[in-house]
Amino acid sequence: MRSEELDNRVTEQPSNRATEEEKSPTLQSQTSSPNDQRPTTNDQDILNAQRSTLNASKEITANLEELPNVVEAMKRLIPDNAVISLRGDLAAGKTTLVQAIARSLGNESAVTSPTFSLQHAYGGGLYHYDLYRVGFEELAQLGMMEEFEKPGWHLVEWMDDRLKAFLAAAGYNLWQVTITPEGDRRIYRIEPLNA
């Protein structure tokens, strides 16, 4: 929100404001006077929420050796229980990122894309899905939607828009990591989808 818009919102006071302030001394100490240009408590909450959303997005450029830095950034930004859409073209490095996450959790077993099994569970609350061949309806018919209830990170390759909409409406912590190749490096954009 631009500061001029915020200034306009702050100076427009409700008509029953004086009555509310007379009734509640706590409200009076938390709100601005009609001539004060500072944001009210509600406006400040809105600004803080906007800032946290902006701060929640991060873009990192990394090569394979720097992939642990991407994983650490994800751990700082993304809650412990979240569904994470991994977005990128074929061979962008989606499964390679999952391998790095599994290694960071102490899992040294082979991490492969679950193209035909749809899901691999690696322990430590790490789940990996490949939905390249499966749409939202088929996933629901297979009873896979309940899998997202398990605590941990659910990393989903090829998540379609209908599944994103369903998960967001159901209140899941929904994030996206977009991977864009740039020579021998990758750009990783980490962002909340339902903040």
From TrEMBL:
MF terms from GO for this chain are:
ATP binding; metal ion binding
Q: Which GO terms describe its biological process?
A: tRNA threonylcarbamoyladenosine modification
Q: What is this protein called?
A: tRNA threonylcarbamoyladenosine biosynthesis protein TsaE
Cited Pfam families: TsaE
Q: Where is the composition biased (Polar residues)?
A: 25-43
The answer to whether the entry has keyword tRNA processing is: yes
Q: Which family does it belong to?
A: Belongs to the TsaE family.
TM regions (residue ranges)? none
For the region Disordered, give the residue spans.
Answer: 1-43
Q: Which UniProt keywords apply?
A: ATP-binding, Cytoplasm, Magnesium, Metal-binding, Nucleotide-binding, tRNA processing
